[in-house]
Specification:
Strand 4, helix 4 and strand 5 form a beta-alpha-beta unit. The radius of gyration is 20 Å and the shape is globular. By secondary structure, the protein is of the alpha/beta class. The longest helix has 19 residues. The protein is built from twelve helices and eleven strands. The protein folds into two domains: 152 residues, Aspartate/ornithine carbamoyltransferase (Rossmann fold, 3-Layer(aba) Sandwich), CATH 3.40.50; 161 residues, Rossmann fold. A five-stranded parallel sheet has the order 8-7-6-9-10.
Length: 348
């Protein structure tokens, strides 16, 4: 399957072979993402970054990835400063912006908007998050993180126990992730959520149809037991309007809960942002120095994986190996003091 010229609107686009090809390309581009090497395979290309909804990681990560491939970025953030606020249709905006760029990354609070937008354009559109629908590039970087974490500890993706915890009904990241992780074999997927916030039935059916075992739980402590991956999501309060929030403090994943429930070699992930305010029921900051916490290794993985995706969609992936050269600017030894010792030195 070739990604050249394709829209990336859903994780449905990818199969296991394509995932593993992207992993290999991301490995090659990881030194570029860390500023240790330079590549210019997209020199002259322009990416339009259109975010109708707030974003930090996705927007900056996509823009950084495209720039590190040698491309340029034009951007607009917030519907209130776009011509849509004057009554312009999504289709008209799409057709106009496609004349300014070679690839568009778009985020919108309505699930159908990215599909309407892509149907009107003549350049590839990448879904940066469509309401409570999907977030395929986040799922790609999550899978790349898992690939690296499991490889480091000598485990394969097959046969793992995966715990997805939190607001699984509205969390678009887990909707895309379950589609990708279920491409592997013999998994036990534990969905841990209050009843009203459970994983949509069609996604459970998809995973079961691929031969995986599904377990449902509303108790995080038992749901996390023996999991190889704990993937936490925050409560998507922006999707609730004025409805009551059925979320107890059991869903606060902190050092005490992890000590009671998690394996020593578990991987703990979160798509971020996490709610770090006192009293929030999310992934706690007292885990910051726990070597199992992979959230910053996860965000770092977003640059090489999105680079690999953009290079593939624009048809220059095969040019990367011959185009790499050393960078000449200052390069830090490690990212920060909270990073696990094995991660501080990229060569280790």
């Amino acid at each position: 399957m070739s990604l050249i010229g394709r829209h990336v609107l859903s994780s449905d686009l990818f199969d296991r072979d394509e995932l593993e090809r992207l992993f290999a390309l991301a490995d090659l581009l990881a030194p570029v993402a860390r500023g240790r090497e330079v590549v210019r395979v997209l020199e002259g290309a322009v990416m339009a970054s259109l975010f109708f909804e707030a974003s930090t990681r996705t927007r900056l990560s996509c823009e950084s990835a495209f720039s590190r491939l040698g491309g340029s970025v034009i951007s607009s953030t917030g519907a209130e400063i776009m011509s849509i606020s004057k009554g312009e249709s999504l289709a008209d905006t799409s057709r106009v912006v496609s004349g300014y760029s070679d690839l568009i990354v778009m985020r919108h609070p309505e699930e159908s908007a990215v599909h309407e937008f892509a149907a009107a354009t003549n350049v590839p559109v990448v879904n940066g998050g469509n309401g409570a629908g999907e977030h395929p590039t986040q799922a790609l970087l999550d899978m790349y993180t898992l690939h690296r974490e499991f490889s480091r500890t000598g485990r394969s993706m097959d046969g793992r126990r995966i715990a997805l915890v939190g607001d699984l009904r509205h969390g678009r990241t887990v909707h895309s992730l379950i589609k990708l992780v279920s491409l592997y074999r013999d998994l036990t997927i534990v969905c841990v959520a209050p009843g009203p916030l459970g994983m949509p039935a069609e996604l459970l059916e998809l995973a079961e149809g691929r031969g995986h075992r599904i377990e449902l739980s509303d108790r995080p402590e038992s749901g996390l037991k023996d999991a190889d991956l704990v993937y936490a999501t925050r409560l998507q309060t922006e999707r609730f309007a004025d409805q009551p929030l059925p979320y107890s403090d059991e869903f606060r994943i902190d050092r005490a809960l992890v000590a009671r429930a998690c394996r020593e070699d578990a991987v703990i992930m979160h798509p971020l942002p996490r709610d770090s305010r006192p009293g929030s029921n999310d992934l706690a900051t007292d885990l910051n120095r726990d070597h199992r916490l992979a959230i910053f290794r996860q965000t770092d993985a977003g640059i090489p994986m999105r680079m690999a995706l953009f290079a593939s969609v624009l048809g220059v992936a095969d040019q990367v190996p011959g185009a790499l050269r050393p960078a000449t600017w200052f390069q830090p030894e490690y990212t920060g003091p909270d990073d696990a010792p094995f991660y501080r030195n990229p060569a280790s």
